[in-house]
Design brief:
This protein has 62 residues and is an all-alpha fold. It is 60% helix and 0% strand.
Length: 62
């Protein structure tokens, strides 16, 4: 998992935000966890690669 974080500000309709937060809570997930997963899946679906700290650590062990 990534160790450093960056903020992403998203403007969303208040009703969608409330529904999203309620759904996340019902699934025992935070909205941030869900958004991070959506971003990972979106990048993967479009063949975009990126380096995380864990990937860097694995490459230096070889």
């Amino acid at each position: 998992m990534e160790s450093k974080t960056a903020r992403l500000t998203v403007l969303i309709d208040p009703h969608k935000k409330k529904a999203f937060e309620q759904l996340c809570a019902a699934q025992d997930l935070t909205p941030s966890q869900v958004v991070r997963q959506l971003i990972r899946e979106y990048l993967d679906n479009h063949g975009v690669t990126y380096v995380t700290k864990s990937k860097l650590a694995n490459n230096t062990k070889a």
